[in-house]
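Thread: Newbie trying to understand structure tokens

Hi all, I'm a second-year student working on a class project, and my supervisor (Dr. K.) asked me to get a predicted structure for one chain before our next meeting. I've only ever worked with sequences, so writing a 3D structure as a token string is new to me. If someone could post the tokens and maybe explain what I'm looking at, I'd be very grateful. Here's the chain:
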Amino acid sequence: MGDSGTTGTQAGIAIHNYCNRNVVVGCLSALNWDNGIEIYVSSGVTTINYQNIVVGNICYKNGYAGIMLRQARYCIVANNLCVSNGQRETNPATYPHRASGISLVADAGYESIRNKIIGNKCFDDGAGTQYAGIYEGSNCDRNYITDNDVEQNTNIPIYKTGANTIVKRNVGYKTENHGTVTVTGDGSTTEFVVKVEHGLVSDKIAVSVSCTKPTTAPPSYIFGYVSDEDSDGFKETLVITVKFDTAPADGEVVEIYWRAEVVE
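---
Reply by user tm_fold:
Sure, no problem. This is what the structure looks like when written as tokens:
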């Protein structure tokens, strides 16, 4: 608690095999040869580290990941600052977990699951080494990655593999969005189509739409769908159609509210 691990020849702070229910809080781990903070099980060791907490630390310019969880379960990693890690990794595209702000990895049969990664800020301050903000590798699932700030990493804000991992409300990796658009009546038009870019990281999204009621009559239907308007293979555009049995009056403005959320 409140300690520091800097310029070390290995990891700055290490919680290794068979270590459970430890707390790492308020520490500085910087310029180390290996990971900044690691909750780690050595390769080939058949165990899992449970219920460790890593909160409120600074991990800066370490050789590999800022915070590394390997074969970890029920751990909490929250409110940490992970900046420009991955200093020693020369091939981050092949080994992104070694050049990330926060990494979760595991061997088959010893999955890293049910961890909470919440409220962290992971970014590269210009060093060009922190490839990913938060990286969830193979054999990881059912983790909760939410409310982090992952802008300004060199390549990947968040990478996840777990089909059941929840990723929500992260700055720099938008999985939810909403907005308002308007249509204006001319006294004769009864069907309006508007288009807006949803701005999400995936086009596998659920959409809900509604609108204000004009003085003439409520809409007979309103719906939205996603469309690939620029033909690049990604459906970036939300197309909203609203129809009225009676046309809105000339000059009458109808507000249309939309919300979209990634479902994969």
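A couple of things are worth pointing out once you decode it. The radius of gyration is 23 Å. The first strand starts at residue 4 and ends at 6. Feel free to ask follow-ups in this thread.
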